[in-house]
Amino acid sequence: MNDFSIAGSQSSPAIQSSWESGVLAMQGDSYPENSYELFHQVIEWIERYLAEANRPLRLELHLLYLNTSSIKAMMDIFDLLEAAHQEGKSVAVNWHYDRRNERVVELAEEFKEDCTFPFMIQSAD
Amino acid sequence: MRGHNPLESQVVESLADLHNQGHPLHDTLSQLWEAHNNLLNRIERIARVSDGYQSIVRDREMTLSARFDKQLRQLEKVARISDRYQVMMRDLNIALTEASTHDALTGIANRRLLTDRLREESERAKRYSRPLCLVMVDIDRFKAINDSHGHEIGDNVLVEVVRVLEAEIREHDLCGRWGGEEFLVMMPETTRDHAVLSMERLRQAVASLRVRVNDDSLSVTVSLGMAELRADENYSSAINRADVALLRAKRNGRDRYELAD
Predict the structure, then answer these.
(1) Is A63 within 8 Å of chain B by CB?
(2) With an 8 Å Cβ cutoff, is A111 touching chain B?
(3) Which residues pair with residue B138 across a beta bridge?
(4) Is the pLDDT of residue A63 over 70?
(5) Model confidence at A124, in pLDDT bands (50, 70, 90)?
(6) CB distance A15 to A24 below 8 Å
(7) Active-site hit among B121, B160, B168, B181
(8) Fewer CB within 10 Å: N-end or C-end of chain B?
(9) Reported pTM
């Protein structure tokens, strides 16, 4: 219920939500022309899930390149998770990176910096 | 409520004093005293309300400033991460440019870069009527080396021959891999006579090269064909003539150079 799935393209990531399993997953590059539109529904879904589901939420991210507005959107999402975490809700992020592009680790670390909830950065083969 | 000051205490005492009860001014003073107290109360209430507003404004200012600080921190972080992505993209761009213009095995210019430079240099040579020589270099019996020693040794031979060619050409010459075991050396500002000297130097340097094969060593030779760009032809026509000359060098026994007609 309430789920959505967006097919990825060269410039925007594929996104799937699963209310049932409490997972939001994103894969690919993020250079959308209108990142507000794209991330608006993601943020809305997360807000609703955190308010209503009363179950743990996990983000599975396989993101490579993000443009500036996508970076901003991701930070807004992590702020949402941080607030939920402060309220005692169970939230977690798994950031997967390609072993061939180790520099993504440094970027994920930057995102992780202000987050006190579980934020894993792991290599994917 | 504050306490009474001496004057006020005196007024209170005078009003309470039984001796003053019949005094003609007692009533007036008592009314004045009441008016005075009302005024005091009012001033205190105004001060309280005003203080309240002030603290509301102050709270709001604090919230705004906290929000501003947070936004500023976020903006700085976005910029920082964005900068790093851009550095990453720039490095990737450089790597891609390098990969698209250079031969992966030998590291020298590939055919794409050679073609670009040939176009530029041939136009320049024609515009200023300067000499430009093109030399095709081909490793002799390369297929036999590959067949008898394997591709890995074949690759080593290519790398070693390129190393020698690169060492022997002049700084403003450009050596690139034209295809398989064929290389092209572009020699701007070089006349036919000087190109001949260069070719002979290249031929000798390769001939004295020894490529290690386990405990053994292998010697290789190259054949060369040269054409000087004519005013009435484009570079691909000059390359064709150099190719024909190279073929003649092969037919005439290899390990030698020939000049195009």
Answers:
(1) no
(2) yes
(3) B182, B223
(4) yes
(5) confident
(6) yes
(7) B181
(8) N
(9) 0.65
